[in-house]
């Protein structure tokens, strides 16, 4: 039997954060930053563009950890149920093969039809379990996206950030990110504080 579920650990925030653009009226009239090193320092000072390390965020965000544990528990439970049904079917097939020589043609036909129906039911159960898990995973990812996006919108407005980018090791979309522009810790701290209140 096929393993029914993809690895949950691969849920990536990269697809979620992408770019959160927030307009900030208090920064609209500030002069444009100078080129070169001055522009980097000015951007850091004015807080126009910052980034979040999505790997660190996922590793430290308590909501994501709980979500992952919940999905893994469901995957484990369903996998166990599939395994039990598959093993029971294999035992029935083995029993039939052992007794087939002593069975009448009518008994063989009847047993084979019953086993074929069971095999089809098992396939449908496997397919439905996969679909159900995929739906649950998509819903959880959407909740995660909404939590992070909503928090970033209010956080960016409060801090005066115009763009919040996501950065991850090996992400081809960002080749370099100056550490002075990283706000991962403050975002994780804020998200965890909000989640703690929500759990109460």
Automatic annotation (TrEMBL):
Region forming the signal peptide: 1-28
Coiled-coil regions, chain positions: 79-128
SMART domains: OmpH (SM00935)
Domain of life of the organism encoding this protein: Bacteria
Pfam families linked: OmpH (PF03938)
Cross-referenced InterPro entries: Chaperone_Skp, Skp_dom_sf
Keywords: Coiled coil, Signal
PROSITE patterns: PROKAR_LIPOPROTEIN
SUPFAM superfamilies documented for this protein: OmpH-like
Transmembrane regions: none
PANTHER family assigned to the protein according to its UniProt record, in alphabetical order: CHAPERONE PROTEIN SKP (PTHR35089)
Family statement: Belongs to the Skp family.
Protein name in the entry: OmpH family outer membrane protein
Organism: Olivibacter oleidegradans
């Amino acid at each position: 039997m096929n393993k029914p579920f993809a690895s949950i650990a691969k849920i990536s925030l990269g697809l979620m954060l992408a770019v959160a653009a927030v307009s900030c009226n208090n920064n609209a009239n500030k002069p444009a930053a100078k080129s070169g090193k001055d522009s980097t320092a000015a951007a850091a000072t004015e807080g126009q563009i910052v980034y979040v390390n999505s790997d660190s965020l996922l590793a430290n965000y308590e909501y994501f950890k709980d979500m992952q544990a919940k999905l893994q528990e469901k995957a484990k439970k369903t996998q166990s149920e599939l395994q039990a049904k598959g093993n029971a079917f294999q035992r029935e097939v083995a029993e039939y093969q052992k007794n087939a020589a002593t069975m009448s043609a009518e008994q063989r036909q009847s047993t084979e039809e019953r086993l074929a129906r069971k095999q089809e039911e098992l396939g449908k159960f496997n397919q439905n379990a996969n679909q159900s898990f995929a739906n649950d995973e998509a819903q959880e990812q959407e909740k995660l996206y909404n939590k992070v996006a909503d928090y970033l919108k209010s956080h960016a407005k409060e801090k005066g950030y115009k763009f919040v980018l996501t950065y991850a090791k090996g992400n081809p979309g960002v080749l370099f990110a100056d550490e002075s522009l990283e706000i991962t810790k403050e975002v994780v701290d804020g998200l965890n504080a909000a989640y703690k209140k929500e759990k109460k």
